[in-house]
Design a protein that fits this description.
With 563 residues, the protein is mainly alpha-helical. It has 20 helices and two strands.
Length: 563
């Protein structure tokens, strides 16, 4: 038999350049060491219950009641809980993190004031992002604190990736806690043993007392909803607690060396070639614009193209906005990946071409803003046009900081971008975007700037009934507006309609669903129907009758009745 060298472990095998073989004598399989978890400390144990309650409140108050006052209350409670749990006494949080927290609280207040679904959706994303930055800041959880765009990577990883990786650590710590505390395990066993006894006792108490029967009946009516909310709260709690636990214990904190490029760069010639092709394309685009201003370049325009204001105004600003976003990404990635010179800075050709791409983006935004201005002057405001206008101003601010960063790499550009743009959007939300668009369009129509006041745009307002009443009173809409008002009020969950008496009463809202704009709308609508003249009452009686008949008499126009 040939003699084999004794293999004591894998390290010896590596030293001898021999792969470990289970058929060789002395082989011992490598068993990975189990990760030992420390038991939860007192605060972490208390906040298991706290965060579950907060998760249930968030699901019940916000998700099941329309993201209005309930969301504001739930977020303020969550913000307070996160602050107590994550605050790092050893290190003072940055002003940037504190400002993000304050702005997020201000943004959450708008949910209780206004009920514009699109704006609230953007605000929800903004509040979530600012809250993540705040949590990272107060727990010293940032891996990059130089104010660059890598800060956004920390935010993305912190809220999307890392919580899932921390679930096993949080569960391991909880398991270690249960092993060391037999008392709590005994308490849990006692609670579980009491449940079968309650199944016998509760029916006896119900049959023996009317008050207790009423209480249990009221709970039983909504028991299905509560069970569903609890079921949804469980994954919300697991995700939220793992996020908080990971940040409190620094599980995702890494040194700056872990994020070094390790030589993974792109050559200067490749970056210059790439940017040159992009820049050449943009130069051709600029040349094509001469067709709008000089007749010698007429041949560039498509056959049949008219030079009307409407054609110029309608086309292109959404696409230009998208190109600007792409340009910002291009400049950012090139700045990160290009091979640095001897001084550790970006080469001058890359800087010049990046500057050209950035300035071209500025030009695109200016042209898009001119198009938008013409569009608004011709057709009036809409919610989308107003939002795009604000986003274009934000993009100008972003590009300005990026241009400064090209020549001053050490400037903290991402932090002021986040603060300024967040403040702008929160301020826009407080200004009530629906009221801004209605007021502008009504005045422009009455003074002749806008020929037609589009009644169907009012359906985009929330709540639409309030603005339909205002439009009727202001005299900016055709008689069809009353038809729309009758249909919206009848089908709305906010009103009860007595068709025979043409009487409209407001439904009392759950406090969790309270929205100030909705309450104002209810008051305006109910007062309007209470003040109707006999002729208007007859008109609305017929309109409500048509709605009840589910459109069977859609030909009714109201021509036999006076306004």
């Amino acid at each position: 038999m040939p003699e084999y060298p004794e293999i004591k472990n894998e390290e010896t095998a590596a030293e001898q350049s021999i792969q470990p073989n289970p058929f060789l004598p002395g082989y011992k399989p490598h068993i990975p060491e189990k990760k030992e978890h420390k038991p939860l400390n007192k605060i972490e144990k208390i906040f298991i219950a706290v965060f579950f309650v907060l998760s249930f409140i968030l699901v019940d108050f916000a998700l099941f009641h329309g993201f209005h006052l309930g969301f504001t209350v739930a977020y303020v409670l969550l913000f307070a809980g996160a602050t107590v749990f994550l605050w790092n006494k050893e290190k003072r949080p940055s002003v940037f993190a504190l400002l993000c927290g304050i702005i997020s609280l201000a943004g959450s207040m708008t949910f209780a004031l206004y009920c514009n679904t699109l704006v609230n959706a953007f605000m929800l994303i903004l509040v979530a992002g600012l809250f993540t930055i705040y949590c990272l800041g107060i727990s010293s959880g940032f891996n990059h604190e130089n104010g660059g765009f890598r800060l956004l990577i920390d935010v993305f990883l912190g809220v999307v990736i890392e919580p899932f990786g921390n679930i096993s650590d949080a569960a391991g710590a909880l398991k270690a806690t249960l092993k060391t505390e037999r008392k709590n395990t005994s308490v849990l066993k006692g609670i579980l043993l009491a449940l079968p006894v309650l199944i016998i006792i509760i029916p006896l108490l119900i049959s023996g007392d009317a008050a207790f029967e009423g209480l249990i009946s009221s709970l039983g009516e909504n028991i299905g909803i509560y069970l569903l909310e609890i079921a949804i709260s469980v994954p919300v709690f697991i995700f939220g607690y793992s996020f908080m636990y990971g940040k409190r214990n620094g599980l995702n904190k890494k040194s700056a060396k872990a994020f070094e490029m390790n030589g993974k760069t792109i050559s200067v010639s490749s970056c210059v070639s790439f940017l040159s092709v992009i820049s050449a394309t943009y130069l051709v685009y600029l040349f094509s614009q001469l067709a709008y201003f000089f007749s010698a370049f007429n041949g560039i325009l498509p056959e049949g193209y008219t030079r009307g204001t409407s054609m110029f105004a309608r086309r292109g600003f959404y696409e230009m906005f998208a190109v600007c976003v792409i340009n910002v990404v291009i400049v950012s990635v090139i700045s990160l990946l290009v091979k640095k010179n001897e001084k550790g800075k970006n080469p001058i050709p890359v800087k010049i071409l990046s500057l050209f791409v950035s300035l071209f983006s500025v030009l695109l935004i200016v042209v898009a803003m001119v198009k938008m201005k013409l569009n608004i002057e011709t057709y009036g405001f809409t919610r989308n046009r107003l939002l795009v206008s604000v986003f274009m101003i934000m993009m100008l601010i972003i590009i300005a900081f990026f241009i400064a960063h090209i020549f001053m790499p050490k400037i903290r550009y991402m932090q002021p971008i986040i603060i300024i743009c967040s403040v702008m959007f929160v301020a826009l939300s407080f200004a009530n975007i629906d009221n801004i668009t209605y007021t502008y369009n009504a005045k422009a129509h009455l003074n002749g700037t806008i020929e037609e006041f589009d009644v169907y745009n009012i359906n985009d307002y929330e709540p639409a009934e309030k603005y339909l009443v205002k439009a009727i009173k202001d005299g900016v809409l055709a008689p069809a507006s009353k038809n729309m008002l009758a249909e919206d009020v009848y089908y709305s969950d906010e009103y009860e309609v007595d068709v025979t008496k043409c009487m409209v009463t407001a439904v009392k809202s759950d406090i969790r669903s309270f929205c100030l704009e909705k309450e104002k709308s209810k008051k305006i609508v109910t007062e309007y129907f209470a003040s109707l003249t006999p002729g208007d009452k007859l008109w609305f009686e017929q309109l409500f009758a048509n709605v009840v008949y589910d459109g069977k008499d859609e030909t009714f126009s109201g021509e036999d009745y006076d306004w």
